[in-house]
Amino acid sequence: MQLLILLASIILLVFLILKKISPVLALLAVSILSGLAFGMSVSQVVSSVNNGIGNTLGGTVMVLVLGAIIGKIAEESGAAQKLVFVLTKSFGIKHIQWAILFTGLLAGIPLFYNAGFVVLVPLVFAIAKTTRLPLLYVGLPMVAPLSVTHGFLPPHPGPVALAAIFHASIGKTLLYGLLIALPLAVIAGILYPRLIVKKKNVDEAITVEAANENALPTAAKSFLIILSPVALIAVGTAGIYLTNGWLKNIFLFLQEPTLALLLSLGLSVILLKLNAEKTALYCTEGIKTIALIILVIAAGGAFKQVLVDSKVGDAIKTYSTHLHLSPLVLGWLIAALFRVALGSATVAALTASGIMVPFLAPGISPELMVLSVGAGSLFFSHVNDTGFWMFKEYFGLSMKQTFQTWTVMETLISVLGLAGVLALDLAI
Fold first, then answer.
1. pTM of this prediction?
2. Is residue 172 a contact partner of residue 237, using CB atoms and an 8 Å limit?
3. Quick check: 36 and 269 in contact, CB under 8 A?
4. Three-state DSSP class for residue 166
5. In Å, what is the CA distance from 321 to each residue of 309, 361, 422, 425?
6. pLDDT tens digits for 38-88?
7. Exposed/middle/buried for 74, CB within 10 Å: 0-12, 13-18, 19+?
8. Cα 233–chain centre separation
9. pLDDT band at residue 194 using 50, 70 and 90 as cut-offs
């Protein structure tokens, strides 16, 4: 009976979102109705909703807010644009795809997908026009790493929220995520475009210049602004291998994502010599970009908690034992189904997490569970995903062409991401 109620809840959630109801309201409504249908009292449902929101946001909200502010600073200051010009000059036109790929990876770490896309796509058009290369040949290397970082790497909303739900280490999630994300970005952003897009030889004498490049931050400042959060968290995570002492405490201090991002924000303000008024403006604008995502995460946490407290996850666990699937594979599969049905990668990941919490038994890495669900949340993007339409409209593609390029690329990242998770599971 519990499984039938869960199925009905999912169908209702999909129906509401397809009817353009806000995911926040849809998730909250379905959380309450499903809790009552599972036999929970009104007070139990309210308690689950409140606990779900509090527990999910408690470990994520400041990470998301600080990450959004740093991303806004990188966007508005031109640090992200500077990376394009530096890497283009370093790699040369012959290897322009690699330059764009690394730019997407670096910019994709602090910038959320939509912001990264909007910031980088004009430069992709400029490069394509200057080099006379096909637009998709230089466009796919930009969107592939943005998608990969969105699904696998903190401080993006999905991985951060999942890490809080599964009680995973942000530092380990980041390190494991990088091991998977880097080869995935190369396969989806370099090898895949070369297979499907024909190109002509380009003139090596051509260079890509920016009319306002002198007004942008220096290369050193740009790299520090964008990479300092990742560097601090990665260095801090290495502290787990130290023996007890003051040095270990410093490393553990840096490992905390909120503190690492706060230090990075301070560094960005100092490097760019931002005054109080400018800093306040960037903070306000950055928070605006993440406000709706935070609300979706909160509502997703409420739905997750209702599923956990109703014990429906245990029923699924009992049923799934007959399928003989690894919990990592099952997490990917459930997230993939939600992705196809709901469109939003973040909503798909959060919805799947509530079902997968009971599967975190000893021997199952919570960090790999984060990455498995994250990989599933990228599966088969189609017409109910805003990323699908952004790619289609910006690159002027037909529906068929968008399915053949964007949808196939996302599916490739998702499936190979699962393969990477399973390979890490064997190795660690």
1. 0.74
2. yes
3. no
4. coil
5. 21, 14, 19, 20
6. 889 999 999 999 998 888 787 678 877 887 888 788 878 888 778 767 777
7. buried
8. 17
9. very high
